[in-house]
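Lab notebook page, bench 4
Experiment: in silico fold of construct C2
Operator: M.H.
Input chain length: 360 residues
Purpose: comparison with the prior construct
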Amino acid sequence: MPLSRRAFAQLLGTGAAAAALPRLVLAARPSGIVRLSANENPYGPSPAAIAALRDAFGLVARYPDEEADLLAADVAKLHGVSTDGVILGNGSSEILKLVAAAFTSSSRKLVMASPTFEAIARYARAGGAEAVTVPLDGSYAHDTAKMAAVAGAGVIYVCNPNNPTGSITPAATMRSLIESAAPSTMILVDEAYHHYAANPSYESVVPMVKTRPNLIVARTFSKIYGMAGLRAGYAVAQPEVIRKLDEQKAWDSMNVMALVAARASLADNAYVAEGRRKNSATKHDLVARLDGLGYKTIPSETNFVMIDLRREARAVIGAMRERRVHVGRVFPAMPRHLRVTIGTPEEMARFVEAFQEVVS
């Protein structure tokens, strides 16, 4: 039965939130539906974040300036940069919107992969910019050479690890792109799935910000930190770039609850490690089960997998929904692949059962 706002507040007030977390997360979903369509963390925020939310109810009458300053300071310390090299966002989606507004226009193109996370293309086009797409290469990595060759680029956007394929663009390739890009072209690297990547060929490019004035790195609290509904994200870049982004930003775009939960999450390294372990184990089991059914997946460094259906995905997606299992949408560049979020072991068992029924 869904939990009312009043009951939720009462539960938080009892201090029982951490113990009740799995029930809280599942209670937010319609009864009987397994939602594996949005790359959410099925385990929700850490107990420390839940406790911070409980303690923050007394702050909601105040503007969030002080809490924003504290989170920016924590992010700056984490990445070894100054606070004027950090900008916070209402999810990393706001960061993408700010970059598009600040650095693309009718004369400055957005360059991106196909397929990849599409939001920034919408933002760029709304500002009159052309969005140029470049297909992923044979390893499902960004074809950075072709992306860099597009004339008139204001922004080159790289989602790494990539959504929806779950694949990575290797560290050496990323370094080459960043080091060779024209100073007038901003490189935006979206590291939303950074914490899940275990491939030794992957690395974060945050350390390169110190020496590359045209590099922006975006992160989110929606994935490993389990805060997709609270909306919290940030970017790291050199101060002059941050100032240009800040000119496009709404006042107080992050609410106080998201800010305090984000601070608590950053400090809870044990929860991140456990979330990574759970995701990896469940993903490994799912891939093995799919392999046993004769279905291959793209090697994934994220909290989802992309399954090669060898048939059009649209009908499979519809049939899964009829069985109350929601999976990813159709991606036009890969219409025969199905993206599936990694849920709990119980949720994945439901997925496999429904999937077997549909494909048979």
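Observations: Residues 269-292 form the longest helix (24 residues). The radius of gyration is 20 Å.
Next step: discuss at group meeting.
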